[in-house]
Amino acid sequence: MAAMRVFSRNIPYLRQQFSALLGNTSPLVKFICVVVVIGYILSFSDDVVDTLSVTPGYLLPPSFQLWSTFTFWFLEIHLWEVIIDIVTVGLCGKLIEPLWGQIEMMKFFVLTNFGVAFLTTFYYLVIYSCTGDTGYLFDIHVHGLAGYIAAVSVAVRQILPDHLLIKTPLGKLTNRSLPLLVLVLAIIFWAVGALEGTYPCMWGSGTILSWMYLRFWQRHSNGTKGDMADNFSFDNFFPTVLQPVVRGILGPPHRCLVRLGLCSPSSRRVHLALSPRGVTISMPGVEPQDMERRRQIALKALSERLSKTSEQARQKNLSTKVNMETVRKMQAPHVIPTFPNPENPEASIQSAASPTVPVSEATLIDISTESPPTSKQS
């Protein structure tokens, strides 16, 4: 009851924060948030959960319920998942949609969720093949936006520069390792029974699929595809010590996909073309949109540094001014008070009336009760 009272008192504040988050977003973002809330209300019915979620055994032949791949994503059974979904989608509308556009964001949303449904089903099919337990095919219900949240974390990692989070014995952990860190935490929470097993599977699927799409297949306005920058390679998601191991493991599969034409080669080739104006160097690994993104990031960092420097200079000038005022007051001439002269009261009145000399009066009170001693004359 106490928790409910605290929550009821904070409802106006939460409403204000959500209004600020979703105030200037597109209708697509608002539609996703509304559908997620409706899905949470419907999740109180077990029949609805069984119908709308992806069940690995029913997604495969002969049932082949493909329509569940378009309905599982808005079904959440926990309130904290609904809040995380709304916040993530709102931030996506604030950060990613202005850069990509509404159509590209919708395409990213659909492809990620559709791929998460099939890849998660493939995971449970492999587990069933190893264990022979049919519960992994018919008792598992895949639902929610965990895969899309992982995809958004990968997209944000592509857009924003690297920031150091913590230092570990395995190396530095930056925001580029955030998808891997959340995956490890999800596995730990699943091991202790605090999280469903579908959550780490969906998170891992969303991370892999979104990286592959952004790395090799996303089309840009200038006609290029993907982001072949070195700092966006898959081994950069891991700590520094583990990167050579991951690079060695993923090297052969990547070469096979390159031969099949599904991925682009990551090696850089330098083409020199002599022209009347000089030498032109073309590096396929560095695309114009990558250069523009890095330029924007560098300009933002420079602007923040300049603003911080100007603020420090302003504070220093203000403190210097205050110190100078204090010194000036301390060096002011001392004022000597003028006492009334009983022998010449007119002079005292004239000195008091003078505008250049401040007037001060002093009154002496004899607090002694005994008369002063007298001396005898011999």
UniProtKB/TrEMBL annotation:
Q: Name one Pfam family in it.
A: DUF1751
Region Disordered: what ranges? Answer: 340-378
- List the biased-composition ranges (Polar residues): 366-378
Does the entry feature the keyword Cytoplasm, yes or no? Answer: no
What's in the GO CC field?
Answer: Golgi apparatus; membrane
Localization, UniProt: Membrane
| Example GO biological process | retrograde vesicle-mediated transport, Golgi to endoplasmic reticulum
Q: Which domain of life is it from?
A: Eukaryota
Q: Cross-referenced InterPro entries, in alphabetical order?
A: Rhomboid-like_sf, TMEM115/Pdh1/Rbl19
Keywords attached to this Swiss-Prot or TrEMBL record, sorted alphabetically, are:
Membrane, Transmembrane, Transmembrane helix
What is this protein's name?
Transmembrane protein 115
